[in-house]
Amino acid sequence: MCESCPIVDWEKELPTVRSFTARRVDAAMTEHIVWYDRYEHEHKPFVGGKNASLGEMMMAELPVPPGFAVTTVAYDQIWRNEQLVSKVNDLLRSIDHDDFAANVVTSEKIRALVEAEPVPEAVVADIHAAYEALCKHCGVENVPVAVRSSATAEDLPDASFAGQQDTFLWIIGADAVVENVRKCWSSIFTDRAIAYRHSMGYLHQAIAMSVGVQKMVDPISSGVAFTLNPTNGDKSQVAIDASWGLGEAVVSGEVTPDNFLVDKVLREVIKREISDKGIEYCLTESGAVEKLEITGDRRTAPAVTDEDLTAIAILARRAEKHYGCPQDVEWALDKHLPAGENVVMLQSRPETVWSQKPKKSVSKGGYDAMSSIVSTLVSPLHDKKQN
Amino acid sequence: MSNRFPSPFEIEGPADIEGWEELYPYSSSFSEYRKEYEDNRFWFWDSMHWGKALTPWDATFMEVALASLSQMNSRHYRIPPADGVDFRILYGYAFLSPVGVDPSQIEARVPQFMERAGHYFGNWDSLYDNWLEKVKSTITEIEAIDFNPLPEMEELDVITSGAGQGSGTKLMSEYNKFKDLIHQAWSYHFEFLNLGYAAYLDFFGFCKEAFPSIPDLGIAKMVAGVEVDLFRPNEELKGLAQKAVDLGIARAFDDPNNVVLEGDAGAQFQAAWDEAADPWFNFTSGNGFYHFDKIWVENPDIPYTFMKDYIARIEAGEDISRPIEAIRAERDRVVSEYRDLLDSDEDREAFDGKLGLARVVFPYVENHNFYIEHWTMSVVWRKLKELGATLEKDGLLGSADDLLFIRRDEVNEVLWDYYANWAVNSPTASAAHWAPIVEKRRAIHAKLDAWKAPKALGEPPEVITEPFTIMLWGITSDSVANWLGSEDAADNELTGMAASPGLVEGIARIVRTPEEVNDLEQGEILVAPITAPSWAPVFPKIQACVTDIGGMMSHAAIVCREYGVPAVTGTGFGTDKIKTGDRIQVDGSSGKVTIL
Asked: Is the per-residue pLDDT at B73 higher than 70?
């Protein structure tokens, strides 16, 4: 961490809490909307980590479902209301961090205030226009979207707020999108987020909220991919987990996914373990997610074809090349896209286990043909294979 | 599960074979004289090369090959950890045993090896060019051997030139020269082979360390040559199929057993055929080691059958040519992608060096098989048949192929009888002498041939370390354990080497002889003790291939990779456990075969 990182003694800083409008705002950025496929690196402070990573994936020509970010410029507009600022600051100051129950109540009060704050007309108009453009792009009237928080903070690592903000799935219609954008804005003040910032000594006002609006994927199957073999760190393989339906079944641990190893270079499936998959999460016609029992042959049938696996491996490798380090990728097979082009990527982040191990030299310093051959002959391959 | 295989001295052979040892030299038999040495070794049946019971002459080529391999390791290059591969014949079957070097001696051999092998690696290309010339001239010399019947009287020239000796004395020296040339060809066979394997293994080991789960195929793809002489016969055949179509005489091949070439087009085709046939159709349907192997030039129905398939594919609009440019581009892609995945420039430098050397040596590893096993051996078997025919004609043998049952050194006695009585102009004794012996030997051989040899004998070593045993035969500590534990394994599962990746299900067909190759139907899975390179034309037809024996460098594995057919080699028991018509699943990526 750099010296300017605002890890501060909260108690000491408390009396001088600045208003949210005091956050530095770049006057050059005025857009309320940034499309993922128009994303540039300068946008990052205004779209947050999550949106930036989706934009970055688009730049890498990875098939991310289409969508746009509602920038922090839009979010900043609501804090022009001095009354809102002072009410929120008062409530924050009133918090007793040992009283969890009271904090839940305070959090709800702050969130209600934020959500009740009228969204400026220009912002509403821009979101409506963007959503309609998205519907047109997808060829679907009222395309279901995911509305996701994408928080940002000057000089703070992304990990400072990862997983602490809300995501709303299967949102349909422009008004509902605006509604859920507000909910994302207010999710800065969940009790967990407040408590977390307190315990880490981060300033509440250091955080700003961008919101991602992205076409929802209705997956045949979904899963994760690591761009290396997790059992031995072999970078020439991609390990792929797959299960039917939405990713929830695997995330929640209710299903053991199928597990595959695909050779990146040969583009061949070199290992497959097909498991008995008892349930899947699916989308109902009303847009709700429901848990369904899987019956018959489908339970033990692979949730992906070899062609799917090859496509996933190629895309994961593309992500790895783009980011320059091994990746941990979330993917899905979209029901509404034609086979062969239906792999979409939902997320890509650095792999953390093997990437942190020191790299060992295979050549062990220099190369001499004859001594190398002698050493191969006297320490037979067979022993190497067993290690 | 037992921890050792039966002793060679405990094995009971088939009944009524008394005197079977006479078919082979005493030096190749297990015996009381060497019992302690033999009993404490590990011996495996080399069913990859010698799957059938050996006749005396089949045994000759086994012995010559193994001694030649061994001298290169032990006496020529001083391979630090490996001496020769010992060989014995038990009830007609070849059992081999790799001989390691005493660990205390290994270090002393290192500088010797570095100097000797270093010379070959350093001058590989010029030595290989020279090798090709040597082998071709050896073949020419074998072809020139004169096994014609002795004349009624010597040519006048023998007299006028003052030679003082003629056909009679020459017959003996021609025969001895024949044996020496065979020996010479086999010595050449191993001149580069083990060094080639060593360089390949070095690159292989590097790749396995950099990418612990890299499939063998990935490594093979980086090294494999694009234009390989071993594939040339098949390519020539494709060209001839195209020629037949172009000349409008494709229908002439509808019945491969009765091909009549007529008119101008027929003559044009025949000319093209003759040009391709020498040398490329000196190509055997087997592995070259057996008297019954069928050679294309002598059995044109075999290549005609393959041609008929090719013609059908050409007429169906298929492009059957080998996509050289695509193969080259794919090889370059694979190399550059693995290279990119390495962590440092230093590793990339070592990778480049090792790959470079592996590619220099590899054409030899791929091509020697055509020059020796196919071309040279085709000529050798032809010559031997010629000698048999001469001996039959002049009444020395009841039938030409009696010769196969007379050991190579016994043949000298027959020739002496022939020469001496030709000289005296008196009756020979051979026919009467050999008739009962050959009859008895034929009967014994038939019984041996019907017998199934055990996979292995004796005490398995803790680890198999001899690199060539692993490379060529695919015998590893794992496969030995697999053989030992075979009674415990699930009845419907087999494991072997993941020789060429891909997962398929289909109907199995057991193919034990080259003739049965033609029974293969589109989409079947070929299950064989071992395959021969000359079966390549059926590979586009099959879905997968399973063999009992063979390592990653076995000819079967090379051909499977070339055709992208999933393959599991070295399963040990594929042809025992699987029956024709069984539905099986072959996973060429994990080396597993399941009977469904």
From this structure: yes
pTM of the complete model: 0.81
Q: Do A365 and B346 touch (CB under 8 A)?
A: yes
Q: 3-state SS of chain A: helix, strand, coil percent to 5?
A: 40, 20, 35
What distance in Å separates the CA atoms of residue A89 and residue B271, rounded to the nearest whole number? 99
Q: Do A377 and B79 touch (CB under 8 A)?
A: yes
Q: Specify the residue for token string 């979409």.
A: A344
ipTM: 0.81
Could you give the 3-state DSSP secondary structure of residue A302? coil
β-strands A219-226, B592-595 pairing: unpaired
Q: Which residues contact B241 (CB under 8 A, 6 or more apart)?
A: B307, B310, B311, B314, B320
Chain A interface mutation, best of B116, B211, B505, highest count of A Cβ atoms under 10 Å: B211
Nearest 10 degrees: CA dihedral of B15, B19, B20, B21?
A: 140
How many domains in chain B? 2
Across the range B350-364, mean pLDDT stands at: 92
Nearest CA in chain A to B468: A377
Residue B188 DSSP label: H
Task: Write the residue in B114, B211, B476 that is nearest to A235 by C-beta.
Answer: B211
- Per the structure, the complete domain to which residue B34 belongs is given by 1-108+426-473
Q: Is residue B216 part of a domain?
A: no
CATH code: domain of residue B549: 3.50.30.10
Report d(CA A332, CA A223) in Å as an integer.
Answer: 6
Q: State how far Cα B383 lies from the chain centre.
A: 19
Report the residue of chain B nearest A373, measured CA to CA.
Answer: B202
The more confidently predicted of residues B145 and A355 is B145
**Residues sharing a CB contact under 8 Å with residue A91, sequence separation 6 or more, in sequence order:** A106, A109, A110, A113
Contact call for B212 and A234, based on CB within 8 A:
yes
Rounded to a whole number, what is the distance in Å from the CA of B577 to chain A's nearest CA?
A: 24
Q: Are residues B500 and B437 in the same domain?
A: no
pLDDT tens-place string over residues A60-83: 889 999 999 999 999 988 888 889
Q: Residue B438: inside a domain, yes or no?
A: yes
Instruction: Indicate if B438 and B525 belong to the same structural domain.
Output: no
Going from the N-terminus, what domains does chain A have, and what CATH number goes with each?
A: 10-215 (3.30.1490.20), 219-356 (3.30.470.20)
Domain-embedded: residue B290: no
Q: Please give the residue of chain A at the shortest CA–CA distance from B504.
A: A306
Cis peptide before B6 (omega within 30 of 0): no
Q: Report CB contact under 8 Å: A370, B79.
A: no
Q: Is A373 on the interface with B (CB under 8 A)?
A: yes
Closest CB from B80, B211, B354 relative to A378 = B80
Which residue type is seen at B327? I
Yes or no: say if B569 and B581 are a contact pair by the CB < 8 Å rule: no
Flag whether B239 is in a domain: no
For residue B554, the SS3 value is coil
Is B334–A265 a contact, with Cβ atoms under 8 angstroms apart? yes
Q: How many CA atoms lie within 13 A of B586 on its CB side?
A: 33
Within an 8 Å CB–CB cutoff, is residue A382 touching chain B? yes
A306 lies within 8 A of chain B by CB = yes
Chain A residues with CB-CB distance to B201 below 8 A: 376-377, 381
Number of CB pairs, chain A paired with chain B, less than 8 A apart: 149
Amino acid at B102: D
pLDDT per position as a tens digit, B371-402: 999 999 999 999 999 999 999 999 999 999 99
| pLDDT for residue A16 is more than 50 | no
- Are residues B3 and B103 part of one domain? yes
Judging contacts by C-beta atoms under 8 Å, the chain A residues touching residue B331 are none
**Is the CB of residue B214 less than 8 Å away from at least one CB of chain A?**
yes
Helix (H) or strand (E) holding B45: strand B42-45
Distance from C-alpha of A297 to C-alpha of A318, rounded to nearest angstrom: 34
Task: Find the radius of gyration of the CA atoms of chain A.
Answer: 24
Q: Alpha-carbon distance A161 to A287, whole Å? A: 28
